[in-house]
Structure formats: structure tokens, C-alpha cells
């Protein structure tokens, strides 16, 4: 078994070997290489003690990341390589970090402390693959299995429970029965993990291609207690139907938590220490796909006369209701008008409109073609520079004040009324026409 090592990692391993130390690439980089994927982070392990690593490569090239745990980060070729001394670990009083570590001479002892067999492999060019726990076979079989006794692994570090489902979702792997059973049984131990770490793992899980099957109820009951089992089950297919990737996390969060409503969704994401940007974007998506939200009212429902059927907090779906915007014949095509799309673009911008369309399509699959057309039209309107915002009007506040309209809240209302009129094609986006319209608005 020969793997292609990252050039920097290979050079560092050669230097450690030349100095008389055992050294290997270890963990995720080995796993990803075996899967034929590009490994982005190359971690190394070695028999050299931290001080010996720093003496070999020089203090300017080394960052003492965690000397007490045997970790030094080496700067090489513009990259960072986390290098850790072979070690075993003592008890985990806090359920997250070892109380003490002991440096050992054998890489196999080091691999025995790791979480899952697919992450417990090491490699160097001289010895090839070191795989004492069958990680390569588990990779080939698409199986996620704990190293050694699952109960012990999860008791040591409860975050490994979430990592189990995150890795399984990322790779589409099955779970070893004993490992899954231990994860469910020990899920309450996640209470001792910080909200930030919980959120990081949930975000990576939600970013996976098809995470629904890996949203384990026993685990979600601990980390997202606001979400009932019924609501979770109803949300799973919606989550899966949303686009994957970190850039689409607000869409996935909205699909998962939307049944809670905007206020509780905000509260949950704030508790999980999500970024303000993620909270605000997710809240917009939840609000605007509610029954009377912008998308609920017209992106899907205006032309057909129905709003979205979204899962409720108890798990059932709200039956479609007639919208307040009126009905059209049953044979009318489901599509959003340019007026509505321009209003959305002006209010939220193109990225959010695209996300709204994606979430609407996931909530109501039969309307997916209409949602795709709406997103395509939004991109075209944006590219064409069609007026959707006050800043795109042919007049500004100074023009209106020069025409005798006083500064203040009334000025803003006039600008917004002008924008609405331009979007509705009541008058052209031209300065003379807008100034005349402004006078009529003030006089009315």
C-alpha cells in the first residue's frame, strides 16, 4: 500500500527519520488518502518529544500549540503541520479532555486512544500503512466503528458521539451496531460539552450531502431539546432536499428548526453560539417561508392560491391555506412575478433570494420547477441592473430636498413609495418623472 504524501509532510517525516525518530502521517489525512480524496490537513505523530521536535526544526519554525499534550505545530512551506508525540491518555474527568497524558514509544499505543478505526491509521513511506484496528477494511465496507470499547471512547469524550454521526453523514457510512448503541445510551453526556463545540459538529453534520438519516433522535433530544421527535422526523426529508455545503447552512438550519417559528429559531441558534450572520439569515428564511411570509404568500402560493405546508412543532404539516393575495385559476402556472422577485431582491439581496427559493422547493417539492425559475429570474434581474433598491432610483434624498421635500422620516417614505411605483411600472425610473411623482405623493 503506497500513498502519495503531501510534499511538506513528506519532508518533515524525512527530517524526523533522519534524526532517528519514528514518525508517521496520521488520522484524517491517511483516511482521506485511502478514500482517494484530497487531504487538506496533514497531521503527524512521532516518537520525538515536543522539546526534541522544537530543537530539530527551530523555535522560529515551531508553535508550541499544546506542549502538555505533546503537540507542536511546525510551519513549513507556507503550511502548518500539527505534530504530536505518541501518547496514551489518562481519565477524562470533564468528559472532554484527558486529565493527563503519557508519552509512549510505539505508534500502535497512540492509535489505540483514537476515536474511530478509520481515523486510527498511520502511514510513512518506509513502513507503509499501520492499521492495528482494521480501519482500511471498515473504509472499504463503509462502516464507522469505535476503536476498542465504544462505551469507553464516548465516556472519555462525549463530543465523539456527534463526530460519529458527522463522519457517517459526510461519507454516507453505516454505523457499527455496538458503536451506535453506545452513542445513543451515552447521548446525555453531551450536556457537558460547550455550546460552541456542539454547534461546530452540528454544522458539519448539516452540511453533509444527505444528513437526514444521521439526525439521531436520542442525540438531538439532548443538543436540540426544543425540537420534538415528531418535528424532527418531519424535518428530515426537507433538510435532505436542501442544497448541501457550508455556504447553505442557513437553509439547512431553517429546514430543521423552521417548525419552531422565527423567535424560537433565533433563541436556539443564539444558545448554540451561531454567528449573528447565520442567525439573521436563518431567521429571514424561517419568517419568509411561513404561511403568510413573502414566499409562503406568493413565491409559491400566489399564482396557485396556496401557501406552503410546513411541518409544525408537533410534527404534522399545516394544511395549505388560501393566501390573502387572492386566487387564480387552478391551471395557472406556479411562478413568482417580477414585482415579487424585485421586492425580495430589494429587501434581502440575491443570495438570500436564491436560498429562499431552495428552501421553498424543499418544503414543497412539486413547486421545485417554479422555484428554480424564480431563482433564475432573480439572477437575471440582478445581472441586468433592474431597479430593486432605493439606491438604484434615478433620484436620491438630496434631489428630493432640493425639490422642497423636507428631510426626515417623510423623505424616506417618499423614496420607498417611489421605489414601489417603479417596481410596479407606475412610472419610469427617470429623474423628471420621479420628482413629479414625489410631489404627488407628498400632496396626497
TrEMBL record:
Residues in tRNA nucleotidyltransferase/poly(A) polymerase RNA and SrmB- binding domain copies: 172-217
A GO molecular-function descriptor: nucleotide binding
EC number: 2.7.7.21, 2.7.7.25, 3.1.3.-, 3.1.4.-
Swiss-Prot/TrEMBL GO biological process terms: tRNA processing
Domain CCA-adding enzyme C-terminal: 390-438
Keyword Chloroplast: no
Keyword entries, A-Z: Hydrolase, Magnesium, Metal-binding, Nucleotide-binding, Nucleotidyltransferase, RNA-binding, Transferase, tRNA processing
InterPro entries for the chain: Bact_CCA-adding_enz_type3_sf, CCA-adding_enz_C, NT_sf, PolA_pol_head_dom, PolyA_RNA-bd
Residue ranges annotated for the Poly A polymerase head domain, each copy included: 23-145
Gene3D superfamilies hit by this protein: 1.10.246.80, Beta Polymerase, domain 2 (3.30.460.10), cca-adding enzyme, domain 2 (1.10.3090.10)
Superkingdom field: Bacteria
Cofactor(s), names only, from the UniProt record: Mg(2+)
Listed Pfam families: PolyA_pol, PolyA_pol_RNAbd, tRNA_NucTran2_2
The keyword Oxidoreductase is annotated on this UniProt entry: no
Family statement: Belongs to the tRNA nucleotidyltransferase/poly(A) polymerase family.
Name of the featured protein: tRNA nucleotidyltransferase/poly(A) polymerase
